[in-house]
Amino acid sequence: MRRRGVIAGIFAAGLIATSVVHSQAATLRNASVITSGTVRLSDLFADLEPGQDRPLGPGPAPGASIQVGGAQLLAIADEYGVDWLDQSPNAMATITRASRVLDQAYFADLVRQNLPELGNGPVSIDLRDFHPMMVAPDDPKPVVLSDVKWDQRSGWFSATVYRGQPSGDITQDSFMLTGVIHAARRLLVYAHALPAGSVISASDVQIDESYAGHIPSRAFTEEADIDGMTVTHGVVAGSPVLDQDLHRTVLMHKGDPAMITFAAPGVHLTATGRALEDGGAGQYIRILNVSSSMIVTGRVVNASEIEVEAGSNPVPSDGNTLRRLTAPARNASRADLSLR
Predict the structure, then answer these.
(1) I want to staple 287 with a disulfide (CB 3.0 to 4.6 A). Which of 73, 145, 179, 273 is the partner?
(2) Mean of all residue pLDDT scores within the chain
(3) How far is CA 279 from CA 8, 138, 251, 306, in A?
(4) Out of the domains of life, which is the source (predicted)?
């Protein structure tokens, strides 16, 4: 019985020794991503013993990383009894804090929520000197807006942004948010892209009933106002038709011969004239009636016709005006000598 008890004791000791020898050692995590603000032992080492995991200290800011070098890793493993395979002073572990990005769309929506006077209509909110912000992915209220101010006349607004979970760095925990808010309006936009020099027709533009983008200068709202005008530079589809983008396409140049027409109920008159200034389609310019030497104002119909409306008052031309007009004509064609 005594011998049998000794053997049982030796066998039991053998089992214990075997379990120690064959226990699985921890392995280093060369890179890990954490979601909380605290670094744990398991963020550095995998395969820890049950109950061995514990917090080590504060983690990096959302989106940032920290590195733990070999000497520090050895010290941590020694302090917490981690049996670590392949221990080396050259080892390195990188811990990155998970994050989500608060972009321009997020802050524009936040501004709108804080300005109920904007109503439910479409607006555009352009942020100035904006930089995206990294926050914890599980933070339900990562930032708060304070002191929101909006000048409805100019559209300028400003607000102070505070982190919901301060990091302790005053330069990162709050900043000024500024920009411009544009209310929606009805205007013309380009239906498709056009290169510089294109002459616009009705098929090149369309009405946007609720355009909310930034408009730096006068914008057109009617197709009739821009028909026949020329694009001064390339434009893209959907952009507003602005005064600065266009110039009137010259159909009639100063000195060009033209037919003057006058129409009224029961009356239709024509006369020979000569333009005194450049004019585009639909533009009103002055023209000399060659037969009467009177100056009238009419609307450019095409490259060779000026239409004078009822109520237009002709004025006499002086000798200087006539000489300025006929001098280049004499050089151009002897047939024009009849105008003297």
Answers:
(1) 273
(2) 82
(3) 117, 65, 6, 10
(4) Bacteria
